[in-house]
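Molecular record:
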Amino acid sequence: MTPGRLVICGAVILGALFCLRPHPLGAQFRSGTSLVEVDVVVLDRNGGFVPGLGAGDLMLFEDGRPQKIEQFYLVTYDPGGAVVSEYAAQADHTAQRVFVILFDEGHLANDSLMRVKRGAEEFVRGQFGPRDIGGVFVDGGMYGGRLTSDREALLAGVGSVAPAFDNRQKLLAPFRDFPRVPSELDAVRIADGGRETADALAVEACRENPQECVVSGGVGAVENQIERKSRDYVRQARRLTAQTVQNLRIVARGLSRIPGRKTVVLLSEGFFVEESRGILERIAAEAARAGTVIYSIDGRGLINPLRPSPDAASRERPRTTGFDTGEDGPNILTAGTGGFRVRGIDDMSRAFGLIVRDTSTYYVIGYQPDNAVLDGTFRKIEVKSKIGGRTIRARKGYAAVPLPPPQTLRGGR
């Protein structure tokens, strides 16, 4: 194998090709599927990482009941990708960072797509370490069918991303035209048969713009336009969301076979979630169980949440979040797995940098739950500090399901 080039190939998991090599130590460390690992980031009042903690400094609860912390260690990476840990043997399975960049093409307007592509390219060139492993999930599958440490392959994957023919901003655009639909929630109510909402919006539209109302055929005709516009949006938005949900499942289940922390960077403006909240919560819970942390970057950059304002990358195109509620989806995924969402930043390289920093230094807690039955239910996790003034970020829970046989990413030279 060429030095510095690790190709991971092998088993097909829901259409995504993840190739792995067995890791005996990782298998031993996680042989008991009831073992739960929790990655914990502890911050001080200034937002800085708090080093030097021990197991006695934290309290861990599952479903409100205190749990005994049986394993506790710090993982931190230097620029060369080395691990520093109090328990080197136990931490061996985290010796390589794993990044998957997931492009949510259907929920990225063209300008946003170009922005996040530049950020991803800068991440690969400048922040992807020599011992890191990554993949680019694009157009429903892992580019090249593999995870790899080859920067050129990752750059090729990023470069292959193309705009979707239909995207969410394009679907929302008619909401701004006469007759206006004020929000996505209004469209959902109307599509579900809320004639009162459609009637009220039609009356308001004709009051604000009587000339357009007359040209359109009167209040009744305007109401019909609003109903048709709302139904069309909800139908297409559900289709786009179904694809996003499927992609998330593929990535989360594929990564579940790799021990240790895995980082998924979801590049998306957000998506329609009204019928998918439970599904997204389940995906997050299963990802959390397997040690996958989901972060999200909003490709819109600096936006105005209240009214249309010039877009940072394309000044002739007003952009806003005033018509949609798409942030709920990424928020469910990030909060459920212990990650966060980056928004309001034009510099995508900086956005990636925030995620890289967060996933490069953290504590790992290992414990055997009092309830050892893997019954598939959701278990709530809460980590608290015994010292005040500290902010703790960790996954909020996990799905009590068995993990697949552990395999890890090992490269020869």
Summary: Confidence is low (pLDDT under 50) at residues 1-33, 80-94, 306-322. The two ends are 5 Å apart (CA to CA). DSSP finds twelve helices and 21 strands in the chain.
